[in-house]
Design brief:
Elements: H1 2-11, H2 16-37, H3 46-59, H4 64-83, H5 112-125, H6 128-140, H7 144-148, E1 155-156, E2 161-165, E3 171-175, H8 178-190, H9 209-219, H10 225-238, H11 244-251, H12 256-260, H13 267-275
Antiparallel strand pairs: 1-2, 2-3
Length: 277
C-alpha cells in the first residue's frame, strides 16, 4: 500500500524526496500501531490519530513543527485512502495541527568565512565534481533534488543560466556567478560520461541524493546542503544587491514570506542584542 501511496504523491506533483519522506513518516505510524495494537491499520481512525498525537507530544517529545510534519504526512495518506476507495472520511482535521509562532531569527547559522573555508577544503581535495556541486549550492541556493536532477541541456554557461525544475514541477531560471561557471567548466573537462545528467558517479548515470550528504559530511562536521541553502538566501540579502523577490525566484520559494525571514537577524545576533538589555 505504501508503494501505491508513493505513486499517488508523485502523481499529484510531489517530488521524489517528499514522497519518500511522507512514506517514512507513515511507516512510523504503522510501527506505533503494530506496537500498540498488534497489527497495522488498513485505514486511519480518528481515535488512533489522537492517541498518536499524544504519543508524539508526551513520549517522543517531538517539537510542534515535527508533530505537524508527521500530521501532514498522515493527512496526505488519509487523502490517498479516500482517493483509492479504502476510506470515506478524514481522520485528521485542521485543529489537530499545533499552532506555531512564526520564527523570527534568521535560520542561517554559518558565516561567509566558514563557507569559503569549506569550499577551499573541497578545492584542495581535488575532486572537481564535488567542488562544482558545493559551489553551485553556495551561490544559487539550489535544492538537493534539483541538483541531482540537473541535466546538461538545462545549463547555459555562456548565458550564465541554469533551467531548474523545482517542487511541484515549477520551472525557474537561476543565474550563475563567475565562480560557479568556472567550477562547472572545470568539472566538465574531466567528466567522462554519456549521461544526460550533469552530475554523475562511477556507479550510476545520476548521482544519488544521499551521495551529496556524504560529500558534505566528508569535508565538514557542521555544514549541510540545507545549511548552504540558508546561507545563500541570507548572504544574497546581506549584500544589498538582491531584492526579496529576486532571492525568492533564485531559491524557488513559492511564497515571498519564506524569503523574508532571511532578512531578520541571526540567532547569535539576537542573543547579542539581548545581552545589551
Amino acid at each position: 500500500m505504501l508503494n501505491e501511496f508513493k505513486q499517488y504523491l508523485l502523481g499529484i506533483g510531489k517530488s521524489e524526496n517528499t514522497a519518500l519522506n511522507y512514506c517514512d513518516k507513515v511507516k512510523l505510524y504503522f510501527k506505533w500501531c503494530l506496537d500498540s495494537f498488534g497489527s497495522e491499520p488498513q485505514q486511519l481512525y480518528r481515535a488512533n490519530v489522537l492517541d498518536y498525537i499524544s504519543y508524539m507530544k508526551t513520549i517522543k517529545r517531538y517539537s510542534p513543527k515535527s508533530v505537524n510534519n508527521h500530521l501532514s504526512s498522515l493527512r496526505s495518506f488519509n487523502e490517498f485512502l479516500i482517493f483509492s476507495g479504502r476510506q470515506t472520511e478524514l481522520a485528521i482535521v485542521k485543529n489537530d495541527f499545533m499552532k506555531i509562532q512564526t520564527q523570527y531569527a534568521n535560520p542561517c547559522t554559518v558565516e561567509q568565512k566558514d563557507v569559503e573555508a569549506f569550499r577551499q577544503r573541497l578545492l584542495e581535495g581535488g575532486n572537481k565534481r564535488d567542488f562544482a556541486i558545493v559551489t553551485l549550492y553556495t551561490y544559487t541556493g539550489i535544492r538537493r533534488s534539483e541538483c541531482v536532477n540537473l541535466r546538461l541541456d538545462q545549463i547555459n554557461l555562456i548565458a550564465k543560466e541554469i533551467y531548474v525544475v523545482g517542487k511541484g514541477d515549477k520551472q525557474r531560471t537561476v543565474y550563475l556567478n563567475d565562480k560557479t561557471v568556472h567550477a562547472i567548466r572545470e568539472y566538465l573537462k574531466v567528466r567522462n560520461s554519456d549521461s544526460p545528467y550533469l552530475f554523475v558517479s562511477r556507479q550510476s548515470e545520476k548521482m544519488a541524493a544521499s551521495r551529496i550528504n556524504q560529500i558534505f559530511n566528508q569535508y565538514s562536521d557542521i555544514i549541510t546542503p540545507k545549511m548552504l541553502r540558508h546561507y545563500f538566501c541570507s548572504h544574497a540579502l546581506d549584500t544589498g544587491d538582491y531584492k526579496i523577490h529576486e532571492v525568492a525566484n533564485q531559491a524557488g520559494h513559492s511564497n515571498v514570506q519564506t524569503t523574508l525571514i532571511y532578512s531578520n537577524p541571526s540567532a547569535r545576533q539576537m542573543k547579542e542584542k539581548a545581552n545589551k538589555l
